Every structure is written in C-alpha cells, then in structure tokens.
Amino acid sequence: DAGVIQSPRHEVTEMGQEVTLRCKPISGHDYLFWYRQTMMRGLELLIYFNNNVPIDDSGMPEDRFSAKMPNASFSTLKIQPSEPRDSAVYFCASRGTHNVLTFGAGSRLTVL
Amino acid sequence: GIQVEQSPPDLILQEGANSTLRCNFSDSVNNLQWFHQNPWGQLINLFYIPSGTKQNGRLSATTVATERYSLLYISSSQTTDSGVYFCAVSRGFGNEKLTFGTGTRLTIIP
Question: Per the omega criterion (within 30 degrees of 0), is the bond before B8 cis?
Fold first, then answer.
C-alpha cells in the first residue's frame, strides 16, 4: 500500500488565487480527515468525512474553504480566494475500522 | 472541547538516555494515539492506546484512562528519535475528532 497520497507537496501562490489540494486515502479506509498545522495553532482538524459524506466541518475557518469527497479514493480541499494567513501545512489522513490514523506527507502552502 | 496537555514542551537528551513523555486530557476518551513528527514533517503513528500498555521495540506506552493520562517511554534514545511527539484523543462513539496536544519536542544529541 502506498499510504495516503497528497498533492502538491509544495505550493506557492499569490493572494487572491484559488488553491486546490488533493488527497488519495488508503484503499478500504472509510474515514478521511483534513488537518492544518501552523506554528501558532498547532494541528487543527478542518473537516472529516465518513463513507464520502462530510460529518463535521466546524473546523473550516471560513467560507473561503471548501472540501469535497466525490468518491472513496479522492478528496479535495479548496481555498478561494487564498490569503497570506492561509499559509500552513495541510495534512490529509485516513482511518479504517482499526481506529489508527495514517497521515499523508502534507502539502506546504505559501500564499504571498 | 476536550483539552490535551503535554509535558515537557522540550527535552534535550544525550544518545542512549531514556525519556518519559506525558499526556494529560480533560475528559474521558475512548481513542488515544501517539504520533512522531520527524524533522522532515512526516507524522507517523506510534500507538493506538486508549487504555493499558503496549510496547514496540524501544518504545512503549501506557494509558490510565481512569486518571486521564498517558505516558510514552523511549529507551536507549537514538538521534533518529528526534522530532516532535504528539498525543491525540477523542471521545469516539460518533465523535471521531482527534484533538492534538501541543507536542513535546525531543532532541537527541550524539
């Protein structure tokens, strides 16, 4: 198994641009989580899905953020328009019935 | 929401030393996991341990759920153990949100 796959690994963009981060969870995992990590706030849960359905999006900071999971093997996190304060490392993680959370390598976003 | 406190925040040790990291949480949980974030940023799951004791090589963990704490033990530290160790908890039973502590930064000096 290749683990949780995220892309891009690094993204540098200008304020106001749309950013799309992608995630492929581990096959067979029915939970998918999006986390954000910053120095100031640590690791924060943004949203999680169960069987492709969004369950809790209370961590999504504002309407500029949206996430989708059109099928069991793909999810996106979109920021539109992006702002400098969105700069962070965004992690996708997935989990099966065994409860162990497996993280992807992360997408480092820099908004200038 | 549930509060997770980790101690110490920073730990610097000589290679070969042993260490104990602590995680306190404010409410009953049925999911507790320990993670290691290496210097390259990768988060690796070490243990799923909502209660009891587990061991994996030089690492072991104990969770005393009734007293709301967990301990991670690292024996015979190696430089590759350096990084940040996170504890994360959730109440489960329909609430799958893992809340992370602020971490313990471990530096192993050769």
Answer: yes
* B48 chain-A contacts, CB cut-off 8 A: 98-100
CA proximity to B46, closest of B70, B14, B68: B70
For residue B93, what pLDDT band results from cuts at 50, 70 and 90?
A: low
Chain B, 79 to 98: residues with Cβ < 8 Å from chain A are: 86, 88, 96-98
Please give the Cα distance from B21 to B11 (Å, whole number): 9
Chain B nearest-CA distance from A112, in A, is 22
Could you tell me the pLDDT band of residue B96, with boundaries at 50, 70 and 90?
A: confident
Query: For residue range B45-73, what is the model confidence (pLDDT) as tens digits?
Result: 999 999 999 999 999 999 999 999 999 99
Indicate the residue of B31, B35, B100 with minimum beta-carbon distance to A99.
B31
Q: What token pair was written down for B28? A: 């009953």
